[in-house]
Structures are given as C-alpha cells and as structure tokens.
Amino acid sequence: MYYNLRFLAIEFLKLIPFYISVVLYFSLVRQDQVWTLWTSALRCLPIMALMFYVSIKGLSIKKHYGQSQLILIGLMFSCAGDVMFNLLLFALGMTCFGATQICYMFAFGWRPLKIIIGACLHISSIGLIYFVIGHLNIAHLIGVFIYCTLITGMFWRSLARALHVKSFLAFFAAVGAALFIISDALAAVIHILHVKLPAPRLQIMITYYAAQFAIALSTADEGRPPAALGSEQ
C-alpha cells in the first residue's frame, strides 16, 4: 500500500499538539528527578496528545477499528504508568506498562505468526535479563522477566506485521516498538545497573515519546478505504 505525501503531511499536522507538549515537558521539567503531580501532568501531556490524535483521526467500536481501540487503551495505561513512575510507585508503573504492551501486542495481531522471529527475540531477551540478575531480588526479577517477555512479544508482533503488510505505517510501528525497547533498556542500564550516562532522562524520554508517536501514527489509515489514501507520489 502506498501513501501520498498529502496524506502523510495531514497526519503529521494533526500531531502538532504532541510536538508542542513534548517541547513543554523538556522545557519546564529540567531536572532528572522531580517527583510531583505537576511534573507528572507534564510528563503525561504528550501521551494525552497522542490519545487525542488516535481519537480524532477516526475511531469506532466497529471491528475494523480494532487496532486503534487497542492502541488507545494502551496509551491510557501508559499515561497511568508515567504517573506511577514519576511518583516512585515502580511496581504499579511496571504493571501499567505491562498492560500497555499487551494492548499493543494484540493491536498488531497474530497473523502471520512468524514463530522463528518470536523465538529468536525471546531468547535474546532472556540473554539480556542475565546481566541484571545480580542486581535484583527475586520479586523484582520475576517482575522484570514478565515485563521483558511482554515487551519482546510486542516487538515480535509489530515486526511480523511489518514484514507481512509491507507498508510504511506498519514499518513505522515496528520502529516504534524497537524504540520502546531501547527506552526501557536505557532505564534498566541507568537505574538497575547504575551506569552513568549523559542526560539520562533526556535519552529515556526522547526514545519513549518517539516510540509512542510511531505506534500511534500507525493507526492513521485504519478504517479508511484504500481509494481515500491514494497512490500518488
């Protein structure tokens, strides 16, 4: 499926509130650790802007809007997770983001399965968990294992869909899923392994917002007939 430049330009323009909210967050929240409701609200603004985008670009309870519905719910869980993390409620935050990954996983679908890709990704995920075993107690380790399984499954489904559909938006969603993993990996390196990186919050949040942006944008053509998208370049 091809997307003309006008279609993509319109979709990017609809996301102006997201761009503004990201700028506001990084402009007004300058410290790496500020745990207040005010900073939580600023942190959630970009995700709320993406929720608004997914809703206004077209949404229905009908089956052919299933991806948009699930991604919208996933964004809601992400927003809750952001508040939990910003208030140092890590267990609740991880639970919320685990629910987000489940929503995204089902949004990307299960056909084709591409089990080999899934197996390779999950084996790699287990290998990465090995590096943090000595830094976590058993309860935290179980939580990290479950979350890594979920986010790896989400990336697997996005990649399988991109390889099958072979469209720009599906590929963009897979890039977003990869960025989500990078963001969480950075958070693990900084907060679990205690590796000092320059501007850690900046690295984590930029990749996180970019991931959510790409995943939300992947719903742009859902529910629209192919003729409405056009094939002009």
From TrEMBL:
It is found in: Membrane. It comes from the Eukaryota. The chain crosses the membrane at residues 12-29, 35-56, 91-108, 115-132, 138-156, 168-193. It catalyses: a 1-O-(1Z-alkenyl)-sn-glycero-3-phosphocholine + H2O = a 2,3-saturated aldehyde + sn-glycerol 3-phosphocholine; a 1-O-(1Z-alkenyl)-sn-glycero-3-phosphoethanolamine + H2O = a 2,3-saturated aldehyde + sn-glycero-3-phosphoethanolamine. It is a multi-pass membrane protein. Its main location: membrane. This is lysoplasmalogenase. It comes from Drosophila virilis (Fruit fly).
